Amino acid sequence: MNIVVCVKYVPDATGDRRFKPDNTVDRAAVDGLLSELDEYAVEQALQIKEKQGDDTEVTVLTVGPERAVEAIRKSLQMGADRGVHVLDDAIAGSDALATSLVLAQALAKVRSAGGWDLVLCGMGSTDGAMGVIPAMLSERLDVPGATFGSSIEVDGDTVRIRRDGDTATVTAEAVLPLVASVTDMTGEARYPSFKGIMAAKKKTVETWSLADIGVEPSQVGLSSSWTAVESTEARPPRTAGEVVSDEGGSGAKALVDFLTSKKFI
Amino acid sequence: MSEVLVLVDHVGGSVRKTTHEMLTIARRIGEPSAVFIGQLSDDAAGALRQYGAAKIYVVDPNALGPYLVAPKAEVLAQLVGSVTPAAVLVSSSAEGKEVAARVAVRTDSGIITDAVDVQPEGGTPGGAPVTTQSVFAGSYTVQATVTRGTPIIAVKPNAATPERAEGAGTVENVPVSISSSAKGARMTGVEPKKASGRPELTEAAIVVAGGRGTGGNFEPVEALADSLGAAVGASRAAVDSGWYPHSFQIGQTGKVVSPQLYVATGISGAIQHRAGMQTSKTIVAVNKDEEAPIFELADFGVVGDLHTVLPAATEEIEKRKG
Ligand SMILES: Cc1cc2nc3c(=O)[nH]c(=O)nc-3n(C[C@H](O)[C@H](O)[C@H](O)COP(=O)(O)OP(=O)(O)OC[C@H]3O[C@@H](n4cnc5c(N)ncnc54)[C@H](O)[C@@H]3O)c2cc1C
Ligand SMILES: Nc1ncnc2c1ncn2[C@@H]1O[C@H](COP(=O)(O)O)[C@@H](O)[C@H]1O
Q1: Beta carbons of B257 and B235 less than 8 angstroms apart
Q2: For ligand 1, what atom is nearest to the CA of residue B271?
Q3: Dihedral angle computed from the Cα positions of residues B249, B251, B253 and B256, in that order, rounded to the nearest 10 degrees
Q4: Of A103, B187, B196, B285, whose CA is between 20 and 30 Å from A259?
Q5: Which stretch of A95-99, B191-195, B245-249 has the lowest confidence by average pLDDT?
Q6: Which parts of the sequence bind FAD (chain B) (predicted)?
Q7: Beta pairing partners, A3
Q8: Residue B264: which of B230, B237, B287, B241 has the closest Cα?
Q9: Residues annotated within a binding site of B
Q10: pLDDT above 80: residue A202
């Protein structure tokens, strides 16, 4: 079977993330990396491959700037087989709908090339964090979607997921082809091994432009997105307040005094 | 004024507070119409009318079948087609966002998720919606608008103070026809969760959370929460250790809460945790390490062992309450 994992290159959350004057994310200000939440999707793809046997191929797909290829590289080091990078200046500033259009068209091209049975996504990107792309891909590709799996299992052409919701735990199944997303509950992602890092050097990464996937530049990018960011404002950083030490058991009383002064009691 | 569709958030037929908030927001933009997927009880209809629903569209859940999300989105998209509303509001839960995403594609409309406020443009009643979001772990506030199609907005809990307004609440049954492509993912089991008896995490005015520092014993955390009428939350370290269920996790991959008071106990304050609580009005921390980063954002902190500080604080609170 063939699996495509959609991975995103995101600014490091521990860095000082900012916006540019045009209200787009300043992707140059902070080092980027493979979104940690997409590592879980790569991991699940590799586990499925290991269970299915060697004729299963894992392709990683990313839409992003030049350096986004680093997200593909990391996935290849973890064990994915090949990469596709959709790279085009016209994509900059795309919102979720526009990004999903590009991803869907790229997936359509992969489909006509060797095909795929399963598209795996992370639960959300660590920068945009909308968690909507997988559902959008399901709609655009007209294949079923099973999102937010806290576990995923492939059995023949049936996929079972477990979704740990707020009010209930739901189990669901679907028949391939399918778009699925997995959460960080699926289990730790592996680190690239030395062997994996060496092997990744020989794996191929194709770069596709918008023209390669049949998307007009006017369909995407900042000006043709479906939403517009009107303003961005840094919130004043929180400042540290009073800190007391619990010497001689005085901490609890000080704490309750504080809560009382704020009328919480 | 144009209709504003509000997808009713309810549990087993009982309408959640988020719905009252969305109906309140809807009135700023147009005339609220509730979309209720389920068996509409008199109580539920009453609640929707009390918060201003002029119409209640009812969708028979049996007609949607045992499938994941897609059929709900299909019905809502059909309604958008027939009603041409000024906006669609859904609650910003995992399911709500998926419905919103699907409706956005189907109706070729812009989508905004995780709105913490929605106001009409220029403050003029009936104006196009302008949303406020809190991004990058709460370090930025962003205002956005939808520029194409019908604004599809996923609204977070506590985005508005619910205000009552009598609505006619005329009930209309929606005819349902579901395409085969929406029937791809079938639910095979639903295991409802036991209610904790405490306030719902994302709606609670006070949240007391425990982390790795609890060492697995959440009793002092729960006791303090109960003395304050608070919800209980947990850090990912606590959830990963199996000490507390995932649905109580606060942070980037859990819930984002914004209560009046957040009490972090035995939690270091990692960026991914902060992403879920940084916008709380008042933050209090109890941690035995005075260098813990959580103190950088706490309005009040106690350096001490939570296993002694929390029980003593609970006792003191009970005493003062009399
Ligand atoms: C992609 C990604 C997503 C993530 N999502 C989340 C998320 O949603 N939510 C989340 O919380 N984390 C998340 N994390 C994990 C996060 O980075 C931290 O690892 C986690 O928040 C740490 O939890 P903690 O503060 O309980 O544990 P620790 O960092 O181990 O801190 C424990 C604290 O307890 C204190 N302590 C110990 N004993 C006591 C005692 N007896 N009394 C008082 N204090 C004591 C210690 O001094 C310490 O400060 C995520 C990480 C990644 C990479
Ligand atoms: N630019 C992108 N390239 C590839 N995959 C993406 C991209 N953006 C989002 N995704 C995928 O969609 C998931 C959800 O992203 P989001 O809806 O942006 O939170 C991510 O975890 C990725 O799997």
Answers
A1: no
A2: 17
A3: 90
A4: B196
A5: B191-195
A6: 212, 235-236, 249-253, 266-273, 287
A7: A58, A118
A8: B287
A9: 212, 235-236, 249-253, 266-273, 287
A10: yes
β-pairing verdict for B152-155 and A2-6 = unpaired
- Whole-number Å distance, alpha carbon A236 to ligand 1 midpoint, is 24
- The range of the structural domain enclosing residue B125 comes to 3-182
N- to C-terminal Cα distance for chain B? 52
Residue A224: per-residue pLDDT: 86
CA atoms within 13 A on the CB side of A263: 2
Query: CA B300, B302, B307, B311: dihedral to nearest 10 degrees?
Result: -60
**B131: domain CATH number?**
3.40.50.620
Rounded distance, CA A201 to CA B249, Å? 39
Tell me the pLDDT tens digit for each residue of B110-123.
Answer: 999 999 999 999 99
Question: How is residue A99 written in tokens?
Answer: 């990004």
Chain A residues whose CB is inside 8 A of the B11 CB are 167
Token pair 């959370």 in the structure block, residue: B209
Q: Which residue of B has its CA nearest to A123?
A: B253
Distance from Cα B300 to the centre of ligand 1, integer Å: 19
Q: What is the ipTM of this complex?
A: 0.94
- The answer to whether residue B164 scores a pLDDT higher than 90 is yes
How many angstroms separate the CA atoms of A165 and A123, rounded?
13
C-beta separation of B59 from B176 below 8 A: yes
Q: Which position has the token pair 């079948």?
A: B65
- What does the alpha-carbon distance between residue A114 and residue A2 come to, in Å, rounded to a whole number? 8
- How many Å lie between the alpha carbon of A79 and the closest alpha carbon of chain B? 25
Domain count, chain B: 2
Mean pLDDT of chain A: 94
Q: Looking at the domain assignment, is residue B187 inside a domain?
A: no
Residue A168: strand pairing partners: B192
For B229-241, b/e burial (b = at least 16 CB within 10 A) is ebbbbbbbbbbbe
Contact between residue A91 and residue A102 where contact means Cβ atoms under 8 Å apart? yes
pLDDT (tens digit, 9 = 90+) per residue, A26-56? 888 888 999 999 999 999 999 999 999 878 9
Q: Classify residue A47: in a domain, yes or no.
A: yes
Does residue B188 form part of some domain? no
**Which residues span the domain enclosing A78?**
2-224
Rounded to two decimals, the pTM is 0.94
Residue B211 banded pLDDT, cuts 50, 70, 90: very high
* Tens digits of residue pLDDT in B257-282: 999 999 999 999 999 999 999 999 99
